[in-house]
């Protein structure tokens, strides 16, 4: 074959590859001007957290029948997307032991979601703060290009993104889980090795590092930090150590929000867990929190993504009061109604778990007959949202 024909053949192959990727990406979730779009149309929806799926599938492969049954069930119930981890402390061992099998089993998870039409919000490093310890290194080493944990992290990002970037069932790439809650904690500054302390500056550097690596291989899908809500003292914890619990001003809150969602992240991730006390629930307090974060999202010009929410019992000293299930259902509906009426683009209930050890309040557990009505509530509100958007 002549050199000219070889070059021409390579150009055609490259164009076909790019075309295939772009074709697949026309149906993925996208973000523009602070709004979420799917299939070219504005989109809002409720989804579900199913955090442990990869654990079982990586361990059992095609024999992970319970995990595959969950995916199929959620698909039949028309749950549009799930948030789950691909990388967690329990999933690194299969990767290190047999990487080829790791990817084969992870393929099964993606294939099952594709078959069930259940979108995936993928968290790559759920407990990223623990990752350096897998290599006997410190958290600061994540930023060192010569460290083992850094090399593993950027290598894993490349392998995972390039493997699945042409699969439209992947909706979003997510960095980690609630790392911002570790930023500038006073007791860590006092008692921990400085190399292991998560300052806001170190946290933001890591967020940006992850995003830059992902953007090398996928320029389309939204990116989420996976962070929790913006604590109302975060700025002062970082910049005012002598009065670290001082409540931030509005201007300071905007700065703190930008730390929790720096560029080029597309969606503003928070987690929120309002509390029920017996048969009482302060809906206005919850409304204030949602509106505060919507204001921060508008400042950042990014859509709000409530990556986790559920109604939990109020923390009390002594014996826990018995949960009033009638009140719990009533207030859960009020929460869904509020999130829907405030037009939050994406929100995911915590969580679905078909294992008997998961007994947390609000955890949908069909094996125990617990909270299964939440799935129907998600479907109900998603239908309402779809009708609202259609008639807009």
Description:
The protein is of the alpha/beta class and 392 residues long. It is built from 13 helices and 14 strands. It has helices at 3-25, 53-60, 65-76, 89-97, 99-116, 148-164, 186-191, 200-215, 234-239, 250-260, 283-300, 325-341, 373-390; strands at 30-32, 35-38, 41-42, 45-49, 81-85, 119-123, 170-174, 223-224, 268-272, 275-277, 280-281, 304-309, 312-313, 346-349. It has an 8-stranded parallel beta sheet with strand order 8-7-6-5-4-14-12-9. It has a 3-stranded antiparallel beta sheet with strand order 1-2-3, with no helix packed on it. A hairpin with a 2-residue loop joins β10 (275-277) and β11. The longest helix is centred in the N-terminal third of the chain and has 23 residues, at 3-25. It is globular and about 55 Å long. Mean pLDDT is 90; it is low at 6-26.
What oligomeric state is this?
single chain
Q: How many E-type strands?
A: 14
Given the helix and strand composition, which structural class is it? alpha/beta
Strand fraction equals: 5-15%
Instruction: Report the radius of gyration as a whole number of Å.
Output: 22 Å
| Shape designation | globular
Helix content bin: 40-55%
**Mean pLDDT rating:** 90
Helices, strands, pairings?
Blueprint: H1 3-25, E1 30-32, E2 35-38, E3 41-42, E4 45-49, H2 53-60, H3 65-76, E5 81-85, H4 89-97, H5 99-116, E6 119-123, H6 148-164, E7 170-174, H7 186-191, H8 200-215, E8 223-224, H9 234-239, H10 250-260, E9 268-272, E10 275-277, E11 280-281, H11 283-300, E12 304-309, E13 312-313, H12 325-341, E14 346-349, H13 373-390
Parallel strand pairs: 4-5, 4-14, 5-6, 6-7, 7-8, 9-12, 10-13, 12-14
Antiparallel strand pairs: 1-2, 2-3, 10-11
Helix pairs in contact: 2-5, 3-5, 4-5, 10-11, 11-12, 12-13
